[in-house]
Amino acid sequence: MEEKDEKYDVKLIKKINALSKSLGFAQEDQTLLEIKKTDDKDIKELHLKNGSWESDDPWFAIDSDDDTKAYAFIPADTFSHMVEALKTAQQENFNLKLEKTIWQNVPIDFEDVWVVAMEDIRTHARAENPNKPISIDLDKLLKKIKKEHPNLFINLKEFIPAQLNNQQ
Q: How far apart are CA 98 and CA 100, in angstroms?
């Protein structure tokens, strides 16, 4: 592939090769296409430069007018699986951050605080656009819950001797 693609930006070819390698595809199996203009501004042609049209692996394409950009073509079902995996990872990441924030605030009963936090988050999500991802400052959320439901948290000041409380 190297000799055929000398006219392409070397950094771009290296990026495509590195991406293929990180995805577990052998460079020799990599499908590389060139996107060429036609006389009709609404039509472009794809020319196979390397690989196979029958490949189920992602196809990479380089626009002959702008050889600094590469495009990846993947089957729609693969794309759908990727989006679902990203959503799942995002949800798990959020849950871990929420769990950490709750534990940092010394709950009496973790599950009760979790339920209150999730209800507050759902209420917040319904108030905004339900289809749009929401951004929540978890520290602010826990402060609010702690203020509204102090009985859900251990008050560490109660355990510090009065002499130390007075010094602070």
A: 5
Going by DSSP bridges, is the β-strand pair 44-50/66-73 parallel, antiparallel, or unpaired? Answer: unpaired
Q: How is residue 93 written in tokens?
A: 């990441």
Phi, psi of 68 (to 5 degrees): -100, -5
Bigger pLDDT: 132 vs 89 = 89
Which helix (H) or strand (E) segment is 72 a member of? strand 66-73
pLDDT tens, position by position, 29-52: 789 999 999 999 999 999 999 888
- For 20, counting Cβ atoms within 10 Å of its Cβ (0-12 exposed, 13-18 middle, 19+ buried), the class is buried
Q: What's the token pair of residue 163?
A: 């002499």
- Whether residue 140 contacts residue 98, with contact meaning beta carbons closer than 8 Å, is answered with no
CB contact set of 1 (below 8 Å; sequence gap of 6+): 13, 27, 28, 30, 32, 49, 50
Tens digit of each residue's pLDDT (9 = 90 or more) over 93-145: 999 999 999 999 999 999 999 999 999 999 887 777 667 777 889 999 999 99
